[in-house]
Design brief:
The chain is built from ten helices and ten strands. The strands form two sheets. It has a six-stranded mixed sheet with strand order 6-7-8-3-9-10, sandwiched between helices. Strands 2-1-4-5 form a four-stranded antiparallel sheet, with helices on one face. It is α/β, with parallel strands linked by helices. The chain has two domains: 159 residues, P-loop containing nucleotide triphosphate hydrolases (Rossmann fold), CATH 3.40.50.300; 67 residues, no CATH class. The protein is globular.
Length: 235
Amino acid sequence: MLLKVEAITVHYERAMALDNVSFHVDEGSVVSIIGSNGAGKSTIFKALSGLKQLTSGEIRFLDRKIDGTAVHDIVKLGLIHLPEGRRLFSNLTVLSNLKLGAYHRSDKGGVSEDLEEIFGLFPRLKERCSQKAGTLSGGEQQMLAIGRALMARPKLLLMDEPSLGLAPKLVDELAPIIKNINGRGLGVILVEQNVPLALKVADRAYVLHVGRIVQEGVPDELKTSEIVRRAYLGG
């Protein structure tokens, strides 16, 4: 088991954001967490990344307790957060943004090799290597954000709403990208409002509603779930 989240509860002051949430991620698997705005999806990622303190519960990554661990130490362990909205350094070039993803690494040869792999995965980034990130299209910026995260050599990649703000055609391109990343042996947690995308790429999925896991299972089970069909699939 790569990650085990056990009965975590999170508050923002007196307001409860997560209530007794538990799930797990096996090595080399994709787990999707689906839910509407305000369900608590991003709070889960903040808790995993060390950005939000737990009220109770425990998070174990690679069989090590990480709740209460500093953010930079969690990054060094290989748990990398790809945030909602991409959050690139818009005035820096594509190349500089990618290199910033490897800021904690000292293996220069490995960094160069990974950079070439990213350019192989996203050829458009190589074409725009010296271009400022802020001048890229939305789809190109998402490629850059993913590439920057991969430069950190994650063992588990947290993808927070990667389809947000993308045109439908570009959203369709995300599924093979996520599958490609996962095919390299990386674990992935995908938080998405785009439920068809989330279920298409997942090995297992969880439905989050008002801070609680209300259903879980393999995608085929959830596609036929009355809760999921009515709330998210227009059934």
